[in-house]
């Protein structure tokens, strides 16, 4: 990462969660030091896993470019991000 922006956001969330009555799981098992994104979700099992993995492998050195994040959403959700359970709690402009 080019700057400390992600850690600053995380530390700010830690402070505000500790000072709130909200249930929290941030750092429950260990201090979070990485970021995660889900790029794709499948609704059904793959019909041809080998072909899919071959295609993914062929792009392992491909530069897909970059993008600028200017908004974050704090959401309430279930483990599976089911649409009927996802509720936006707050939008952060960064």
Describe the structure.
It is a single chain. The chain has 94 residues and is an alpha+beta fold. The protein is 26% helix and 14% strand. The protein is built from 2 helices and 2 strands, in the order H-H-E-E. It has helices spanning 5-18, 49-58; strands at 71-76, 87-93. A two-stranded antiparallel sheet has the order 1-2. The longest helix is centred in the N-terminal third of the chain and has 14 residues, at 5-18. The chain is extended.
Rg over CA atoms, rounded to whole Å, is: 17 Å
Tell me the number of helical segments per DSSP (H or I, 4 or more residues long).
Answer: 2
- Helix/strand-derived class? alpha+beta
Mean pLDDT score, rounded? 83
The end-to-end span amounts to 16 Å
Low-confidence stretches: none
Q: Going across the major beta sheet, what is the strand order? A: 1-2
- Largest sheet geometry: 2 strands, antiparallel
**How would you describe the shape?**
extended
Helix share of residues? Answer: 25-40%
Concise description?
The protein has helices spanning 5-18, 49-58; strands at 71-76, 87-93.
Relevant terms:
94 residues; alpha+beta; 26% helix; extended
């Amino acid at each position: 990462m080019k700057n400390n922006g992600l850690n600053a956001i995380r530390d700010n969330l830690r402070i505000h969660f500790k000072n709130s009555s909200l249930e929290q799981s941030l750092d429950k098992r260990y201090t979070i030091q990485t970021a995660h994104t889900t790029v794709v979700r499948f609704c059904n099992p793959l019909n041809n896993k080998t072909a899919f993995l071959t295609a993914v492998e062929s792009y392992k050195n491909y530069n897909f470019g970059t993008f600028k994040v200017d908004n974050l959403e704090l959401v309430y959700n279930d483990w599976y991000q089911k649409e009927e359970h996802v509720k936006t709690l707050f939008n952060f402009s960064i």
